[in-house]
Amino acid sequence: MSARVALIEDDPILREAVTRTISLAPDLEFVAAAETAAAGRALLDTPMEVLLIDLALPDGSGIDLIREASARFPNLKIIVVSIFGDASSVVNAIEAGAHGYLLKSADPGEAADAIRAVLTGGAPISPAVAGHILARIRGRASVSPAASTPLLSDKEVAILTELSKGFRYKEVARLHGISPNTVGDHVKSIYRKLAVNSRSEAVFEAVQAGIIQLKD
Amino acid sequence: MIEKPPSPRLKTSFLAVFLIGLQIFFVAVLLAANVVAERAPGRLIDQAIANVKPTGAPGEEFAPGTLGAIRLPAPFCCAQTPVIVRTTLTAADAATPDLALLIPSAHDNALVYVDGELIGGAGAPSTETNTSRRPQLVRIPPRYAREGAVIDVSVQRAIGFAHLRPLSLGRYDALYPSYLALRLLRSDLPFINAVVAAFIAVFCVCAAPLLGARGLLLSLAGLAASWLLQHVWILVTDPPWSALTHTLLYLIGFLGAVLFLVWFFIEWTSAFEPPERAAQKPSDLLLHPWSASARQRLGIATAGLVALGAGLMLWRLNVGEEMIAIQDIDRVLGFLGLVAMAFCLLRLVTHILRGGMREPIEMASFLVVVLSAIADIVMVRFFSSYGVLLGVAAAFFPLALMVSLAGRARGVFEAATANAERLNALVAEREREIVANLEELQRRERATLLLEERARIMRDMHDGIGGQLLGLVLQAKANKLSGESLVQGLEESLADLRVIVDSLEQGDGSLATVLGAFRARIEPRVEAAGAQLIWEIGDVGETSGFGPDRALQLYRILQEACTNALKHGRPDRIAVTLARNDTGHIELSLSDNGHGFDPTHARGGRGLSNMRYRAERIGAQLRVASSGAGTRVSLQL
User: How many Å separate Cα B629 from the centre of its chain?
Assistant: First the structure.
């Protein structure tokens, strides 16, 4: 069965290009497209496996939409679309629950490749994104050094460090004597931890602020 | 909303009313005691005959002459031998059950005889120095209580005022309350006064340096000390010094009280209002506030006057007959006291006239004190009677003063609190201003940084992508642009834009991460040229601080080096290496295995000089080495 893909993107040319690429791919099925975050929210109920979201939507940040989609549909694969793949917004999206990101590029094949990679359990990560995650973790540790457990394991931090230097999965695997798949698993685990941590932090803050009332 | 505390004025008023009530009660008790003491029931004996021991003996017929018939109160002057005062019982006396004799005031060594038999008395016999006076209530045994029985009271004679006052004969029970009242006034009250005076004297001396009104407190201390001396004098029955010294002490106490009271009232009527004129006329000394310096001189003068007075008294006592001298001094002091009290009264009245009843409690008590003193002096000097009013007035004088000082302290405290609040408000306002200024400063600083950053990015855009796009536009206008070269040109522009964006990514700010982000930019180009990229980023330790500017210069140097390598050398391998070199410096290099070029007169000379310029900007050393086996561009950071 082919994977159903929806797209939320405000640029008509890019929307057109991506839509065509997906429609041409035999293993992907294009189901819906939206131009705004509001329309995208309405589109969430459409049955699908993959959701592509542009972060810079005219009526608001795609981050909120990602958070909502990931909370409502845990099995939905969310992929962020960005021109430059600037690391801070990508990491924000990962924390909100995104599973990968896609650089807008002139090569339409890349979009299909990225979707397939995420569907098969791959987790793309650029050196800049890895560097950003490292910086955030260090920042958090310096804010509260006594924080009970470190967010990421030593192994995960070591792998992130290698990835931030520009090494590919294969090269990292060779350096650490593990298989490239294991590297991918670590990266997925990092993604999950970031999202979970971000959610629990949000809940914690909401409880602190009195937005959520916990029953005892 | 915070509840406001009750107004301090209200609290002060409560305190004042309470203290006034206490004073009124106290005065009422003392006046009642005085009335009871003065109006002893029974038969008042103010006519008697007197004789001097040992000319006459108790019970025996007096030899004619010596003193004869007297009227009580009688001042016996001036020898200190005992005097016998005699009266006889009437039929009514004899019929009174439980007959007793009340002696309101006599030396402690007064002895009572009936028909020559000693029936009562107290104190050390015939002590010349025993000048204290206590009341006595002596029972007359029933077997002596018959009509015509002779009652003799033998008392020490003394200097000064009448020490034997009219006696009372009556029922013991009826006289007892008067005896108690007398004991309270003559014995207990002086004790209380002495304690209060000692307390005030110590307190004022200690508080004078702390509080503002130094002269006021010191004058009060002097007054209290004099007051203390007088009451200790009353309480001491058998002093270890001579009768003359004892008398002198009393007179000094009196003089001190008068002079210090004058000083005190001048302070009181001056300290809280400024003098009206800088230069003062003599009449101002009488009626107007004194300046602080004048009052300071007055304080020294007062102490000096007391000392001088004591000296004068001592001198007078040693000239001629002592007893006459004491009488003289007594008269002078009485006169001085009256003048001084009149002066105080005048100052008080003018003070009230100037400012109204500003301090009603104090003013009332002060007036009572001054008037009582005048009344007492007049009573003692001219009517040979007891003066008790001053004792009564003085008892609530300290209370009034306490209210006054508490009120003033409260005022000072409130003023200080208000001041502190004003200061706090001022400090808070300044703090807000400072914070606002600081924020403004920071905002400007941020704005400046942003401007610099913007200028830098503009420059970078201008250097790279701007020039490229402009070139494309010019070529396209001249119809010299093929579709293929347009795509290529646009892709290069996009790539350059991405490099700029990459340089803006801060990540963890380390050199390794800065390089990591760059790999994706050059690897496609290297591979498109049919070469392989070898990526060797070693661990070189902490290398933070690679901001956007340094990162971009680094990228541009590597781009240029890579372009040169691909253009001139035709290599099949390009390696990017980050490691520490032999000298321990961090070295970044891009090397290829192409056939090299001559760096000294290379065609890419402009590219090389550009690279050098950029290396200088980031504080790095650029080395280019080329041979037939390849080229190596290295940066020592």
Answer: 91
Number of CB atoms found within 10 A of residue A58's CB: 10
Residue A28 pLDDT greater than 70, yes or no: yes
Residue A134, chain B, CB below 8 Å: the answer is yes
- Kindly report the CATH class assigned to A3-119: alpha beta
Q: Is residue B335 part of a domain?
A: yes
Could you tell me the CA-to-CA distances from A54 to A25, A100, A125, B517 in Å, in that order?
21, 12, 17, 22
Poorest-pLDDT segment among B85-94, B290-299, B395-404: B395-404
Count up the domains in chain B and report the number. Answer: 3
Contacts of B574 in chain A (CB under 8 A): none
Let me know if residue B369 belongs to a domain.
yes
Between residues A142 and A101, which one has the greater pLDDT? Answer: A101
CA distance A92 to chain B (A): 13
Q: Are residues B225 and B171 in the same domain?
A: no
Q: Are B145 and B94 contained in the same domain?
A: yes
- Please list every residue in chain A whose beta carbon sits closer than 8 Å to the beta carbon of residue B505: 86-88, 128, 131-132
Indicate the residue among B377, B410, B443 that finishes a domain.
Answer: B410
What is the tens place of the pLDDT at every residue in B159-195? 554 467 788 999 999 999 999 988 888 888 888 888 9
- Which residues of chain A make contact with B508, given a CB cutoff of 8 A? 131-132, 134-135, 138, 164
Cβ-defined contact of A167 to B517 (cutoff 8 Å): no
Residue B241: exposed, middle, or buried by beta-carbon count in 10 A (0-12, 13-18, 19+)? exposed
What is the Cα–Cα distance from B551 to B538, expressed in whole angstroms? 18
Where in the sequence is the domain holding B276, given as residue range(s)?
187-410
**Which pLDDT does position B177 carry in this prediction?**
92
- Nearest CA among B211, B386, B222 for reference residue B298: B222
**Which of A86, A161, A167 faces B501 most closely, judged by CB atoms?**
A86
Whether B173 and B196 share a structural domain: no
Of A51, A135, A139, nearest to A96 by C-alpha is A51
- Looking at the fold, whether B235 and B336 belong to one and the same domain comes out as yes
DSSP B465: I
Which residues share a beta bridge with B85?
Answer: B50, B153
Q: Which residues of B touch A127 (CB under 8 A)?
A: 513, 516-517, 519-520
Domain ranges of chain A: 3-119, 127-209
